[in-house]
Amino acid sequence: MKYRVFAKLVKVEPVDHETYVHTYEAPQIAQDALPGQFLHIRVTHLSTPLLRRPISILWSDSHSLVKVLFKVVRTGTALLAEKREGELVDLLGPLGTPFPYDFNRDSIMVAGGYGIAPVYYLSRLNPSNNNKRVLIYGARDASQLYLRNDLKAAFDEVNYATQDGSVGRRGLVTDPLRDLLMSRGNLAIYACGPTPMLAAVKQLVAEVAEPGTPCWLSMENQMGCGFGACQGCVVKTVDGYATTCKQGPVFDARTVVFS
Ligand SMILES: Cc1cc2nc3c(=O)[nH]c(=O)nc-3n(C[C@H](O)[C@H](O)[C@H](O)COP(=O)(O)OP(=O)(O)OC[C@H]3O[C@@H](n4cnc5c(N)ncnc54)[C@H](O)[C@@H]3O)c2cc1C
Predict the structure, then answer these.
(1) Structural domains for the chain
(2) Which numbered atom of ligand 1 lies nearest the CA of 218?
(3) Could you identify the atom of ligand 1 that is nearest to the CA of residue 73?
(4) Which end of the chain is more exposed for a tag (fewer CB within 10 A), N or C?
């Protein structure tokens, strides 16, 4: 079920000068939300920008509150960053497909930049089963690694990779991922981040992981309507084109065709 609500922005937490966590009071959305799903946010009541902006759900209390983490990119996200506590914001959600979580396998969650949001939520929703939750989190530099203070509690193991070596291993997330895939078995992989990262994760899992290792990718194509009508966000799959907003954003890696 998806809802359109005018939700009260109850908390604004600046993460850095261009990144924010918003907490909205939106009971219907909070009660239905699942990790991997997103909110489609109308950032203004004016006619431009007309299109909503998709932002992953970072956390829900399953009762009334829902959080997102977003980075200011251009006009739409800049307007969202201008919202103040107490304002009503037009939300559509929860939209899209969630990550299917496999309780019988240890999970490796791979995130790039603000791609941390859905995997953080995934780890929080499925705590302390006997399966292990390992995070591999990468970015260009330390400033693009968000929520670091919260990650230790959410995961059994946290591995960082930065391209400038400022935190964790110097290089890409695929370096620690390769090591983990080669040394451990009975895994499921969940990834969210830039498209080149997702393509590399898919390829590595196919080459190195035990045959049959599930791998789920949350795709980030720009989108228009958010519910499958405009076809503005299609990704190529082995079964033809699929909409990121409705058939995704979470796809089985085996089905996605990267060009
Ligand atoms: C599923 C999903 C989850 C996301 N989660 C997060 C998150 O958790 N945190 C975060 O910071 N960012 C997230 N993003 C990225 C975020 O949506 C963009 O950064 C944001 O839309 C940029 O808006 P802008 O106005 O600032 O930038 P601009 O680049 O000015 O605007 C981008 C907008 O242009 C329109 N557009 C551009 N190309 C097309 C096209 N081909 N078809 C239709 N419309 C188009 C869309 O409305 C799009 O949202 C997510 C994106 C997706 C698809």
Answers:
(1) 3-95 (2.40.30.10), 106-255 (3.40.50.80)
(2) 1
(3) 26
(4) C
